[in-house]
Amino acid sequence: QVQLVESGGGSVQAGGSLRLSCAASGFTASGNCMGWFRQAPGKEREGVAGIYPGGGSNYYAGSVTGRFTISRDNAKNMVYLEMNSLKPEDTAMYYCAAKWGLCAGWIPSRFPYWGQGTQVTVSA
Description:
This protein is about 0% helix and about 50% strand. The strands form 2 sheets. Strands 2, 4, 5, 6, 9, 10 and 11 form a 7-stranded mixed sheet that branches. It has no helices and 11 strands. About 35% of the residues are buried. By secondary structure, the chain is mostly beta strands.
């Protein structure tokens, strides 16, 4: 049974940093596609960052490029999202998501496995 558990959310002021963690079980993070999504109130869920099986260039949404970094610890079966220079518009529930095999676009419907989410709130 695949299980994803996020942690690390919280409240910070604009310009601050947070590091989100996603612990995967029943699933090998290194050989499959994993990503971070977020959903703000009244908005659709959107892909923020993604990491491909086997490495290579990571995916970042334009709004977070240069500020967020996704990484993976294969030994711990963990995926992280380092978020710097946070802005109020980054406020959202952040979700870790996974799918078997190759990545096929950062569309929520293509990911069958989701964590429960962790809230990130950035104040001005």
